[in-house]
Amino acid sequence: MLSEKGGVKTAKELVSKEGGTERFSKLWQLGSLDLSVEALVLKDDYNGLFTQDELSLCKKRLEKYKYGVK
């Protein structure tokens, strides 16, 4: 996916996937959401590449899983 579409477009597709990705759930199970695309999108280095809606979606998804609500 990365080699076909590049990093930003791939991240946008993964973030916009309803309910998140299977790998997001796996990272949650491992206690490693800091490695998720959602967490990376919110970093200062990258957040300027995404819309406010995309950033909001990332924040909401991370908060939802932080409190164990899937």
Taking pLDDT < 50 over at least 5 consecutive residues as the criterion, the unreliable ranges are none
Average predicted confidence as pLDDT = 89
For the terminal residues, how far apart are their CA atoms? 26 Å
The quaternary structure here is: single chain
Helical fraction: 55-70%
Q: Please summarize the sheet with the most strands.
A: none
Strand content: under 5%
Total of helices:
5
- SS-based class: mainly alpha
Number of strands: 0
Number of domain units: 1
State Rg. 12 Å
User: What is the global morphology?
Assistant: globular
Instruction: Give helix and strand order, one letter per element, not per position.
Output: HHHHH
How does this structure look, described?
The chain is mainly alpha-helical. The protein has one domain (2-65). Helix content is 60%, strand content 0%. It is built from five helices and no strands. It has helices at residues 2-5, 7-16, 22-29, 37-41, 52-66. It is globular, with a radius of gyration of 12 Å. 16% of the residues are buried. The mean pLDDT is 89.
